[in-house]
């Protein structure tokens, strides 16, 4: 005879699911990119998302990638830990902005138990350099230009 409590003790522990919000418009301007204001009342929405324990916001709209945290732009808003923001660039047109001008890019997002991994890939034409400091040139194709790893908050 097996009691329900014994069976529950033998089950592997399952981590909580990731809470992800996906939307088109951006909730914060990427650092160093002041050309576009975020959507109206974005800070109020971010405060609510924090209360709802959202882990990650996936968005776009600006045609410029940004991977970071809400605290990068809105520090000290009484949050123990901000929300990870993964903003995509331009995947299918040449409307890229900033360093992604006229380029295509995408983010590869991998959710693990307690970590989030984001790779930012951008298309490099022949002769493009992968970064402003780099002297090496690139063969045509997509290149992983940055990788970011975030640990999920204990909220």
Description:
By secondary structure, the chain is mainly β. It has two helices and seven strands. The protein has helices spanning 4-10, 42-51, and strands at residues 20-22, 56-59, 66-69, 84-87, 105-111, 115-124, 141-151. The chain has a four-stranded mixed beta sheet, with no helix packed on it. Strands 5-6-7 form a three-stranded antiparallel beta sheet, with no helix packed on it. The protein is globular. The two termini are 38 Å apart. The model has no long low-confidence stretch (mean pLDDT 77).
Order of helices and strands: HEHEEEEEE
The end-to-end distance, rounded to whole angstroms, is 38 Å
Helix share bin: 10-25%
Which term fits the overall shape? globular
Q: Give the rounded overall mean pLDDT.
A: 77
Please tally the helical runs, counting DSSP H or I stretches of 4 or more residues.
2
Major beta sheet, strand line-up: 1-2-4-3
What low-confidence regions span 5 or more consecutive residues with pLDDT below 50? none
Structural class by helix and strand composition: mainly beta
- Give me the Rg, rounded: 19 Å
